[in-house]
């Protein structure tokens, strides 16, 4: 779709990504000591970024596969945004998220809702955006089996010390249905107010006043576009300048120095994107590590071959053989596949019989 990316890591174990299963060691030859990034002999075997021509561009609100720019996902709960973003691009962890912002957009999050260029985003019909809620009952218990069967709740939830229930992920539709239950007194969506200190949030300075639910505005860089560069907005773009576009960057007093020369502007060399998970309050995404460069984009997921429900420990047949993107509700092509498979088996059997 977006053009096949040529592999950059030339010496690596086949059929595995970044780690050899069972051994827990790197599957590829690369010295990830940042001080030796450009001098290590092992790193000389890396090929430069190249991509074959694509036949479409990434559209806003499409689901995209990409390499996590600040790859620290060996432990999702131990996220440090400034560690390990010097791994080879094609060996960073593959993620699947929704592209909510494309190059040239100005993005802002208000009370958990995404606004692009000042307008609230309207997601596709298949999107099932989830938020966290606190549910107060009349004393009745909300069992996992009940919530799964009635409301298709597959994420964990728990009872708080005051008896209320905290749900990490509910769709707004299910929250409204739950509020109508005779055993439920109130359902309240949780919104992190602006000004909540969180140094884990991009640009990881801790002084923006932004929260995960009230964020920005930020400009998403477009290839060839030029911005005025100041000490105030430098934290938003320093990783792009230094890590993704391979410039030297220093600050001397109030002066910004790029490649040894004073700079008050910067022109971007590639496109960038803003990726977010539909499970808004349980997702490590661009709110934490910022922009996704186009050279980190792998492609577009097309088909769901298999889906397993961890709660019911059964196959989600309504998701097997369904397309990922597209208008309208999800449609399964499993029955057509089975019909074609049966026809092929019968045809092969008859053909062999005739040969005999």
From TrEMBL:
TM ranges: 333-350
One GO term describing the cellular component: membrane
GO BP annotations, alphabetical order: signal peptide processing
Enzyme Commission (EC) number: 3.4.21.89
Catalytic activity: Cleavage of hydrophobic, N-terminal signal or leader sequences from secreted and periplasmic proteins
Gene3D superfamilies (UniProt xref): Umud Fragment, subunit A
Keyword entries, A-Z: Hydrolase, Membrane, Transmembrane, Transmembrane helix
Top-level EC class as recorded in UniProt: hydrolase
Cited Pfam families: Peptidase_S26
InterPro entries: LexA/Signal_pep-like_sf, Pept_S26A_signal_pept_1, Pept_S26A_signal_pept_1_CS, Peptidase_S26
Peptidase S26 domain ranges (all copies): 37-168, 267-306
Membrane found in the keyword field: yes
GO molecular function: serine-type endopeptidase activity; signal peptidase activity
Region span, Disordered: 181-203
Stated family: Belongs to the peptidase S26 family.
Protein name per UniProt: Signal peptidase I
Organism from which the protein derives: Sinomicrobium pectinilyticum
